[in-house]
Amino acid sequence: MPGSSSDSGPIPQSQPSSGPDATAPVRGTVFPLVLAVAAAASCWNLLGAPFAVVTAVVALMLALRVRPPPGRARIRVRIATALSAIALIWAVLVLATSFRGATPGAAVPGAPAPGAAEARRVLDDAERQTAERRQSARRELEREGSPPDTQSGALR
Fold this sequence. Notes:
The protein contains 4 helices and no strands. 18% of the residues are buried. It is rod-shaped. The chain has helices at 24-42, 49-65, 72-100, 116-144. The chain is 60% helix and 0% strand. By secondary structure, the protein is an all-alpha fold.
């Protein structure tokens, strides 16, 4: 029958829609990457490290939830996952070391600081090592006719 619904012709192929769902995989992979870059940019600084922790955790959660198709979207998700994991670890280390008071080049925690006697001994050793040079400088000044400056203690 020509008017029946069973004879409607060939079944149309589904075309990709141009609606809001068409860009969902792209947006779903770009946002975790943007958050991971933001976390990486702020993870090295003590003031930005708390922000980096939050954004890195959110980026990790979003990147792990996305199931992108193969291609650029999958690469973006892998980069976002790696970058946010590195930023999270780095920010936690920055926060942990700053609250412990550790700074690069500082004395080893738990090592005793040199006491007054040790400092005095080091200074006395340095004075003995430079005594000959100070005496020769004093003699040279006396030969030139200008007395050494004893007020400032520069050449005692």
